[in-house]
What does this fold into?
Amino acid sequence: MRYAYLGPEGTFTEAAVASLKPPADAVAVPFPSVGAALSAVRTGQAERGVVPMESSVEGIVTATVDDLTAGSGLRIHAETRLPIAFALLTAAGTALGDVKAVGGHPQAQAQCRRWLSAHLPHAEWVPQASNGEAARQVAAGRLDAALAGEFAAGKYGLSVLAGDVHDNGNAVTRFVVVAPESEAAPAPTSTDRTSVAAFLTDDHAGALMEILTEFAVRGINLSTIQSRPTGDALGSYFFFIDCEGHIHDARVGEAMMGLRRVCAEVRFLGSYPRCDGRRTHVRPGTSDAEFAAAAAWLARLRDGHG
Amino acid sequence: MRYAYLGPEGTFTEAAVASLKPPADAVAVPFPSVGAALSAVRTGQAERGVVPMESSVEGIVTATVDDLTAGSGLRIHAETRLPIAFALLTAAGTALGDVKAVGGHPQAQAQCRRWLSAHLPHAEWVPQASNGEAARQVAAGRLDAALAGEFAAGKYGLSVLAGDVHDNGNAVTRFVVVAPESEAAPAPTSTDRTSVAAFLTDDHAGALMEILTEFAVRGINLSTIQSRPTGDALGSYFFFIDCEGHIHDARVGEAMMGLRRVCAEVRFLGSYPRCDGRRTHVRPGTSDAEFAAAAAWLARLRDGHG
Amino acid sequence: MRYAYLGPEGTFTEAAVASLKPPADAVAVPFPSVGAALSAVRTGQAERGVVPMESSVEGIVTATVDDLTAGSGLRIHAETRLPIAFALLTAAGTALGDVKAVGGHPQAQAQCRRWLSAHLPHAEWVPQASNGEAARQVAAGRLDAALAGEFAAGKYGLSVLAGDVHDNGNAVTRFVVVAPESEAAPAPTSTDRTSVAAFLTDDHAGALMEILTEFAVRGINLSTIQSRPTGDALGSYFFFIDCEGHIHDARVGEAMMGLRRVCAEVRFLGSYPRCDGRRTHVRPGTSDAEFAAAAAWLARLRDGHG
Amino acid sequence: MRYAYLGPEGTFTEAAVASLKPPADAVAVPFPSVGAALSAVRTGQAERGVVPMESSVEGIVTATVDDLTAGSGLRIHAETRLPIAFALLTAAGTALGDVKAVGGHPQAQAQCRRWLSAHLPHAEWVPQASNGEAARQVAAGRLDAALAGEFAAGKYGLSVLAGDVHDNGNAVTRFVVVAPESEAAPAPTSTDRTSVAAFLTDDHAGALMEILTEFAVRGINLSTIQSRPTGDALGSYFFFIDCEGHIHDARVGEAMMGLRRVCAEVRFLGSYPRCDGRRTHVRPGTSDAEFAAAAAWLARLRDGHG
It folds into this structure.
């Protein structure tokens, strides 16, 4: 089992792979971008892909949403989340006063801004493609310090000069695990999430209301809705939606069919257990048993014995 | 084939039976009330019942709606409509000046009020259980004149002293033909109506909106909605609803199942061709073919090959 | 103070007038029809009109709704309700076995059907324009018995041969009191009802939803909705609506303006205290104070100091 | 007039300032981040701020939305848009074969990926804080080439080695111009946009529907809706919304008041002319004249002369 993840080694995504407790013989393979990690699953270089989906600070990771929506052949099978805690990593023996240049992913700078102003007001910020890359540059002697997770220190033989240097102590990132669509999907639980991308036929007033009504009329809560540009022009959009429940649930299945009928295009991205364990709210009248009873009743009416 | 109708002979309902062009060996049997005519079908005394459903002047005929909803075992199979034109019927030789007492159903008085004030301002109005009964009383010498359809003159050996005495020249009544629910229902056409009674679970704000949304989200037009008391107390209601389409239409079937899930009780009263021939409006995305395509797509998604 | 009511003496409507506890010098004047009673107020023959509005058995009284909607110059100022209890009234000395012909309003027959079948199975039913009229005919010796309220016995010098002969012990009728629209309307209380008639511009799918949304978006409960024919043709409708609250409530006023903008025509029929005393539900965000705070906020935004 | 913009010199934002045709004596001052440029307006260092708002490729610029929403004292007064066209800039005399290291903002790499693979497959990518910064590094001899707009070449004394190196020829970015909220807002035109941030009181099913209904019931089209994390925890959101129309339009003002009543918090971000010139759709029944007529009608009803 090979896991393709957004690398390099030492990123939070690698830590996310570890948190999934993969089998002992699993191999985690870093890729330089979200798109590369996902392509590896599509082409069979890897069986699973692990990429960030949503940050409590930055919101949806657009590279992930856009690649899953535009590409094909993949389904989300699981999700996990990690608290995002930054440390300042240096070569052994470096003191704060020695740090003239510090690097990391641009989001690392954004999330550690107050600490940097207070403790390294004069250090140059050198943006890097990832926090792992920043750590690698420190190890190679090309940077004095890197902002990264503490777990990256071991990977690159660095020291933790300062821990918990992030401004917001509650920052969390959610990661998704994708698999080829030909594999069997995870079975429904009572705590699932379904992700879908919906393309409107036009943008008449109320088109978005129509989409949301397909969920609301069946008592399905949404946890995310995001208009995303299709890339063609400003103002041309699709909607990325996370809802509660599983495509095997009767109410979710019927809502998906409703979307399919009213939208120009619907891309199903997967149904999978939520990592927060929050149970799906089932409004009275929307359980599988109630759907089945209604279907049996309709069949009797249509046969003329109702 | 026996047709039980709201009698006696000489009523508009009898004319409605004739307009249905029943088979040559059919027999039309008058009953004294809507309830009695419908019971005759339930008990097997008749194969069909014909009763008024809606008047363009008075609206829904509550006796018909309430009996169909409260009772069981019947389905509407057809509808027909008649213009409502009143004549003043008398014994041969009667002149206007001879008319001291005129009778008819209370609605006849309501629909001929202006003519009566202008031409018989001093005549006593004697309400009767039906217009046919009024004609019978004239024939028996107990009334001077009756308001009824011209066709009643022949039945009772009366003359038409004045025709078209109604105030509103466009009055129309719609009649329904009911059959035992064990009989096969009429096949779908492209111009059907479906009648249903829906009982709410409670009257929270928005309960009615929920019901209507089950129709609207599937593009189904309503032609009638009527809150009707359940008879238990003021403010306890059910809703009588006529919508476009047939229960065999995918969108109508799904809407019926939706009603069944959100309502305390749903009574299906029948799907049948409209007498006005107006074609059902099918909103894009709600045809049977689009429902079938969406179901096939969902099946592929659930199998993991979508 | 003259009260025009649906007569004659001895009807439930007269009892409704008494239940209103009119001033000592008030005079109650019977009129032969709902329309005549309402016209009396329009023409100044009376200061108030009292007519039935809704029966727990028959539903909305269409004559009242249609006259108030079609006419002008009147507003509902109050409502009251009475339990509907029938008695069998006869001349003194009459025994059950003597009753060959019994009369009353057609609804009286409908509401006493079981008692009549059990105790007077062979008596002829003679429909009358009102229960009071039936009692008058008994007093005049032209009928053996009348179905009417017990209070009618005293009016016509009759005896109560049997009391509580109605089938449904909970039947109730609601009556409204109307006044000229030039009079000041009743002040808002916390338990008001507002009646309105709304004419659609067309019957596209969702037109009714649009109307209901004007209420729902502002948290206003509806207690009645009724499609009523305009009289022009089958399928041409207006909607009679009762909602909670008073036109002086901010949320009701804004909803009325919304109706006015989306409908072809809106007829306001009045805001008045409910006779059942049920307090208006005020959803969070819809109180007068919250409307006022929002208006003040908007004014600041528009001034550029928000 | 001082314009604070997202710098440094040579960025697309600087080009956006130029496209606004500022007065001759205007000064454009670069700031290192969106937050710094906006703060400059809040503190009076500048009279206007110009920052990117939306990219046709990446969507909403979260730094801009989040700063405008969290901060206070600013209003959007205008918007402008620019096609995003990248060039490869080098020192004079550099040939493609000499380029070992190329830099730019991470989005520049994302938007030129195909050209880079085809023409510079072996060059190292060195992410920079902005395209202008990359150009500066080339001028300083620390990078071989930069991806930036052609207009940056002149600023830094560089040559255009290759033009139009971006993959998507239609990429466009929209920029907004902000001013202190104490200044008079732009007057309404017939082609306005209004931006607002709405915080839900809770996330019950249908909370988002409630917000959207406040717009839909008044016929207001939305052009953007985006759930954005509040930063407190995953799944805690506000909604950033762009709608058609101006806060001085009656329908928009009423919708804003509705939002204010149903939301925990509403931040008005501005009403301003659209740069695409698309005229606001005004649904029948929602013009200022119709709102005024409805208000006059309501006033008459409340006075009792309606």
Q: What stands out?
A: The radius of gyration of chain A is 23 Å. Chain A has a mean pLDDT of 91. Residues 102 and 125 of chain A are 5 Å apart (CA to CA). Chain A is about 30% helix and 30% strand.
